[in-house]
Amino acid sequence: MAVDLSRPEYYINRELSWLDFNRRVMEEARDERNPLLERVRFLGIVADILDEFFEVRVAGILQVQESGGTSTGPDRLTPEEQLAAISRTTHELVAAQYRCWNEELLPALAAEKIHLHDPSELRGEQLAFVRRYWRDELEPILTPIVIDPAHPFPRVLNKALCIGVLLEQDGGTAVGVVTVPRVLPRILALPDAGDGAVHMVTLAAIVAHYLTELFEGYRVTGYGSFRVTRNSELYVNEEEADNLLEEIAESLEQRRKGDVVRLEIDEQAPTRLVRFLMTQFEVDQDRVYTADGPVNLNRITTIYGLVNRPGLKDRPFTPLEVNLPADPDRFFESLRARDVLLHHPYESFNTVIDFIRMAVRDPRVLAIKQTLYRTGEDSEVVQALMEAADQGKEVAVLVELKARFDEAFNIEWARKLEEGGVHVVYGLLGMKTHCKLSMVVRRDRDQLRRYAHLGTGNYNHVTARLYTDLGLLTAREDMTREVAEVFNLLTARSEETFRKLLVAPTTMMSGFLRRIDREIEHARAGRPAAIVAKMNGLTDAKVIRALYRASMAGVEIDLVVRGICCLRPGLLGISERIRVHSIIGRFLEHSRVFYFANGGDPEIWTGSADWMNRNLRNRVEVVFPVEEEGIKARLHHYLQLCLADRSKSRVCLSDGSYVRLEPQSGEPALCMQEALMAIARGEDGGPELPPLTGWNGAVGSAVVGSAA
Predict the structure, then answer these.
(1) By CB distance 3.0 to 4.6 Å, which of 311, 487, 573, 621 could disulfide with 504?
(2) Alpha helix (H) residue ranges in 526-624
(3) How far apart are CA 431 and CA 423, in angstroms?
């Protein structure tokens, strides 16, 4: 009898999986094996992830609920059921955050002579410093507001830290509000007290200390810091927008004023103040989160930069510089000879920037085409592209204006690029352009030829030091021709046929499903059949059902999913052969790699897409095959290390919870990221690892940084 693979109990709720990912990040904050300041940084990351979760995911569910919608995923939980489960889980998570801060990190910091003070504790020069800072830097830019008929409650901006104050004057009561300014540092280092310690104070604590002076003429009877999170989705009618850039710029302003989805408030705030704010922001008790400490915990990451104690941080790592020719003719000749794989941050992102700069200064290069998703504030890539246009080269850039939370940077760069003579386009109507592509057209001595960089990560030199990503430099004609076709699709909406690349939203879904079905056929025929897929998220129900069918047919499947995973592994008769791993480490695991045993003739693919609904259906994505044996061997080794990690890896149980993988008795706990850094440094990269099922390539000892 056929098994109904659409049954809701076979799927983990997407939102609860996201929260479980956040719980795993918090485990790193609690893990005493991590350096202390790295633990502080991890706890700040937990708060940052929660911000986005409320701004986007909770806000979306609330909108579905308000519109009368029902279930929103294959688990078929209603919006009401999801919101109830989210509230319960998130309140537990927030309470655990503050326990970690108060009971573990603060005492550990104090033991290292690192102190975060309340101004009331200070004496002598440190108190005088706070007083001068209040008088000269802080008080002049504050705007205290007392609520009355002439002064209505202010429009509090998204994630702005404020202090609500209960006031009395001549027997009457009032409520005051002041916003803690974003233009000043949220944590300040105090003068050296001569005790070898680091002393700090928060900006909010200084404001609170001087509330009586700020609200002169009133008696302060109570106060509490608070912060609201608003719906931060962009709502742009692209069909009606004459100028998409201006439309999105206007929507960004509205984002700051979206509906409130969460109220965070100091645990010590008076009940009257809490109720007043709940009424003002129209939130019920389920969306109120009390803070037993700094209301905005992601600001504690500031401590990391203020404390110069290398022993309390990760060992510094300098990416390996890949040795490629500096002369343009020899550089491009080397790419014609063989592809070059780059693995960031183990190998420097400078090679990608050099590829673009080489094209800028090479007189034989006629044109450069580029996609930009998350550029960052100071983009070396964008500067090089403007220089190319200034030299008269044809430069076309696809700027994704809807890259969430990076829209402002991208709008600014789009304007500068246009002013610099670059042809700027914004992609396909109704879709984000998420693929990572760069293409150079060069008049070589024998013919006009294309060169391309295809990657898994953004053209952002800052995140390239923090995220693990892969990139391929290639001159393969069959590959670069189709890269050119992707650009044509983006700029001219032309109908293109892709045979080499998997491109969403046209051929990628069917391409992946065909390969999963092929593994099923191999398993049934007794040939090697296995899938190893590394990605950021797995939510697509159609892909999950295909993986269930593969498991039932005998295909061994290992999934390395950093974040959200809606597949439920280990279900009897359904997913017994599927294992789900999650690695949370020093670097954010961002690369996507897909391995198919293919009956003993393995295929390896990499690219920009996860197995998520949005990537496969609503974005322009590119996944490309890796065909050179030396590069395949490197990626094979990478996947081996991922599966062998016993330091930062967890496995998902069938109930959706995660447990740490422990090393075998007597074995050291292998850390995949540490092993790859060791290889980049030229040190021992760890133990010999068994080959993946069906592998017949030359695994050998492929070295990070080699042209192969």
Answers:
(1) 621
(2) 541-553, 613-617
(3) 20
656: pLDDT strictly greater than 80: yes
CB 689 within 8 A of CB 640: yes
- pLDDT band at residue 244, thresholds of 50, 70 and 90? very low
Place of tokens 């080959």: 691
| Residue-wise pLDDT tens digits, 399-426 | 876 645 455 666 776 777 788 778 888 7
Average pLDDT over residues 296-324: 94
Chain centroid, CA 332 distance in Å:
33
**Catalytic annotation present for 434:** yes
The single-letter code of the amino acid at 420 is G
- For 149-270, where are the alpha helices, taking DSSP H only? 203-209, 211-214, 244-255
**d(Cα 596, Cα 38) in Å, to the nearest integer?**
36
Question: What pLDDT, on a 0 to 100 scale, did the predictor assign at position 708?
Answer: 30
Give pLDDT tens digits for 544-603: 999 999 999 999 999 999 999 999 999 999 999 999 999 999 999 999 999 999 999 999
Residues 6+ apart with CB under 8 A from 470: 341, 342, 343, 344, 455, 456, 457, 591, 593, 606, 635
pLDDT digit string, tens, across residues 495-517: 678 999 999 999 999 999 999 99
* Residue 423 vs residues 380, 394, 397, 418, 460: alpha-carbon distances, Å: 18, 8, 6, 6, 20
Whole-angstrom CA distances from 150 to 141, 143, 154 are 22, 15, 12
Question: Whole-angstrom Cα distance, residue 456 to residue 621?
Answer: 10
Give the gyration radius of the chain's Cα atoms: 27
- C-alpha–C-alpha distance, residues 188 and 108, integer Å: 20
Give the Cα separation of 433 and 213 in Å (integer).
52
Instruction: Give the sign of the dihedral formed by CA 64, CA 70, CA 72, CA 77.
Output: positive
Residue 481 clears pLDDT 50, i.e. is over it: yes
Query: Which is nearest to 555 in space by CA: 533, 536, 537?
Result: 533
CA distance to 328, 358, 391, 440, 442, per residue, from 363 (Å): 9, 10, 9, 12, 9
Q: Which among 199, 209, 344, 434 is annotated as catalytic? A: 434
**Alpha-carbon 462 to chain mean position:** 13
Among 317, 318, 594, which Cα is nearest to 470's?
Answer: 594
For residue 177, report the phi and psi dihedrals to the nearest 5 degrees: -140, 135
Of 13, 8, 2, 10, nearest to 548 (Cα)? 10
Residue 543, helix vs strand vs coil: helix
The pLDDT of residue 705: 34
How far from chain centre, in Å, is Cα 344?
15
Share of the chain above pLDDT 70, in %: 90
Helix (H) or strand (E) holding 561: strand 556-561
Pair 432, 459: CB distance under 8 Å: no
**How many of the other CB atoms lie within 10 Å of CB of 141?**
10
Report the pLDDT value the prediction gives residue 419, as an integer from 0 to 100: 80
Element containing residue 441 per DSSP (H, E): strand 436-443
Confidence of residue 239 (pLDDT cuts 50, 70, 90): very low
